[in-house]
């Protein structure tokens, strides 16, 4: 469970690092797009200035403006395509992240149930151990009582044996 948990945490960290990388790429693209927009506005100002100064070369500037606009649109389209790709990858990673979160929750629930089961088993073993300990103590007490009684009986038998032996000796002496 711990290994799986660590493995899932590593996957989550990798996914977060990948998401951070894509976010940085998105920010870089946004900065590039901003530069392109600024470049476009500068071109338009330059075109207006040149229009006022050089009416004769107006057509050349119009052609230049159209070319610049096409390039800008192309770059914008490329940027939008890249943004769409990054967005779809982000969604995929987000879904994967949700799946990992679900797996983590499932593992945590499984871990909690196993922990509860372990606790119940431990309590059951503790109760069995206490019962066996109590039975052992009772058996030891009974055996000690039996040993004590047997010693007492042995003492009584020795006394009886000595009395019989004494009576026998007395009887031999009297004979």
Automatic annotation (TrEMBL):
This is GOLI4 protein. Keywords: Coiled coil. InterPro entries: GOLIM4. Transmembrane segments: none annotated. It comes from the Eukaryota. The keyword Protein biosynthesis does not apply. GO terms for cellular component: Golgi membrane. The keyword Protein biosynthesis does not apply. Residues 5-60, 90-142 form a coiled coil.
């Amino acid at each position: 469970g711990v290994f799986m948990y660590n493995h899932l945490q590593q996957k989550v960290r990798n996914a977060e690092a990948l998401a951070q990388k894509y976010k940085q790429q998105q920010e870089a693209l946004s900065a590039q797009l901003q530069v392109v927009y600024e470049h476009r506005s500068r071109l338009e100002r330059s075109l207006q200035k040149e229009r006022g100064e050089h009416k004769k070369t107006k057509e050349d500037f119009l052609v230049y403006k159209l070319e610049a606009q096409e390039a800008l649109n192309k770059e914008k389209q490329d940027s939008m395509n890249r943004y769409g790709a990054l967005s779809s990858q982000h969604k995929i990673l987000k879904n994967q992240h949700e799946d990992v979160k679900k797996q983590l929750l499932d593992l945590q629930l499984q871990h909690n149930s196993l922990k509860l089961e372990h606790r119940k088993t431990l309590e059951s073993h503790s109760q069995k151990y206490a019962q066996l300990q109590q039975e052992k103590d009772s058996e030891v007490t009974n055996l000690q009582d039996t040993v004590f009684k047997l010693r007492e009986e042995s003492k009584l038998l020795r006394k009886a044996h000595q009395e019989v032996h004494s009576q026998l000796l007395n009887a031999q002496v009297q004979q």
